[in-house]
Amino acid sequence: MPNLLVVSTSGAGYDTVDVHFLRLQRQAGLAAATGDAASATALAGKAAASRELELGLVRAADVTLVVSEHEQALLRSLVPEADVRVLSNVHHRAGELPGPQGRAGLLFVGSFDHLPNRDAVIWMAREVLPLVHHRHPGTVLHVVGSNPSPDVLDLADGTVEIHGWVADLVPLHQRCRLSVAPLRYGAGVKGKVGESMAAGLPTVCTPMAVEGMRLVDGEHVLVADDARRFADQVVALLDDDALWCRLSEAGANAITERFGPDVARAALQDLLATAAKLTPSS
């Protein structure tokens, strides 16, 4: 989703959606860490150019919107004079949170036009899922998202099912045992995490996937930063119904508290009050 600059008689507002240069910097870092020096150099150049563009928009706008306190702090540190506010994702908690009985499989959700999602699901299928299979053979990874690329489609086999785009995630939220968000780079707040948790589906994430969400490892989600630990956390949720139930309830409550409609409504009311002050008097 692109950044958005809105200019009116009430002033200018910049909606970042996520901080692109931060995502590009992290992608460059991953490329460097995996030995792809040429890509790392090219991505670092793109990140620098995006940084100048984005910070210029922050300076030009009366108000800049970000999706998390993490990105708010980053932009305030780089442009101290900027008015940077948080207006994040909105999630509605499911009315019913079905328990763990009868569930099977892992759920990954993400549009594959977005490169971090391609990297994440390939890493999950190739590096994490085989470790899960050592203890739970045949566990299926359900991959949902628009426009799966050829390298994603190539993952399909007996334990990786590529669904592509689906009109309604509810059946998969109620069928799968847990959700996974194995992102190795990115920025912003991850809708896939909030949506799964709001549906009562316990989620295993990388630190990148929960950045800015104020979620606690072991209390709301399970977090891991390498393939073996990620597989361990997946297996824990496959094995332990009590852990599953605790994370299901606590996760859904946390998403309601941090990303429910009332939170967004309050942020918008504050923003509209600011816009009214900026409107020239007639």
What topology emerges from the helices and strands here?
Layout: E1 4-8, E2 11-15, H1 20-33, H2 37-60, E3 63-66, H3 69-78, E4 84-86, E5 106-109, H4 115-135, E6 141-144, H5 150-153, E7 160-164, H6 170-175, E8 178-181, H7 191-198, E9 203-205, H8 207-210, E10 222-223, H9 227-239, H10 241-259, H11 261-278
Parallel strand pairs: 2-3, 3-4, 5-6, 5-8, 6-7, 8-9, 9-10
Antiparallel strand pairs: 1-2
Main attributes?
14% strand; Rossmann fold; 11 helices; alpha/beta; 2 domains; 282 residues
Net shape:
globular
CATH architecture of the largest domain: 3-Layer(aba) Sandwich
pLDDT averaged residue by residue: 92
Strand order of the largest sheet: 7-6-5-8-9-10
Report low-confidence residues grouped into runs of 5 or more: 4-10
Query: How many strands in all?
Result: 10
Q: Classify the fold: give the CATH topology of the largest domain.
A: Rossmann fold
